[in-house]
Amino acid sequence: MTDKPLDGRLALVTGASRGIGAAIAESMAARGAHVVLVARTAKDLEGVEQRIFDAGGAATIAPLDLTQADAIAKLATAIEGRWAALDVLVLNAGTLGTLGAVPAIDPAEMARVLTLNVSAPAALIAAFDPMLRRSAAGKVIGLTSSVGRKPRAYWGLYGASKAAFDTLLGAYGDEMAAISRVRTAIIDPGATRTVMRARAYPGEDPASVKEPSVVGERVAELAVAGFEDGHRERVEPSQR
Fold this sequence. Notes:
Elements lengths: L9 E5 L4 H12 L3 E6 L2 H13 L3 E6 L5 H12 L7 E4 L15 H27 L5 E5 L12 H22 L5 E6 L6 H6 L11 H14 L5 E4 L6
Parallel strand pairs: 1-2, 1-4, 2-3, 4-5, 5-6, 6-7
C-alpha cells in the first residue's frame, strides 16, 4: 500500500487549531490528504498549517466562527469553487461549558453550547452534503464523549449536547446509507491531553493521559480503511 493513501482526497477538520483537531489534521495530511483547517484563531491555524507544510503535506486555513451559520455557507461555496468533492468531514469543534448541577445551568450559556456542539455540525452537514455525495466514498467522522451516552453528575449541559450531536450524526448516516456512498462514524477519544480536559480535571497530571496524536492517528486510519455506517468506537491509549 502506498504511504500516501489519501493522496488526491480533500478533508475538512473543525477545531483544527490545537489538540485533537490539529492532530487529526496532521495525520490526514501525512497520508496525502489536502486538509482544510477550520477554527476561530488564524494565528493558531497558521502554526498547524506550517507543521503540515514542513512535513511535506498540503493544507488551507479557514479562520471561521462556526456559530455563524452564514459563515459556514460561505465557506462551503468557496471550497466548492475549488474542489469537486469533499471526501472526509471531521466534526471535532466543541465547547465544554460550565460543569455544574442541572438546576444551575444558565440558559444563555446553554444556548451557546448547543449552538457550537449541535447547531454548527448540523449547518456543516447541510452545507457540505452535496460535496460529500460527490465523493467516491464520503465520510463524516464526529468526535463525541462518553457522557453523551451515560449521564454523569454535573456534566448535564455538555452531556446533553453530545447526546444530541450523536443522534444528529447517526440520523444523517441512516438517511445516507441507502441513497449514497456517504458513511458516518462517531469516535469517543477517551481521556486525552487537551485544554478542555485540563479545564474539566484541573488536578489531573497531564502525563497520565494519552497525547492527541493517538486519536489523530486512529481517525486518519479510519479515513483510509473506511467503516460501516454507524461505526462507533472509543480510542484507547494502546491504539496507534
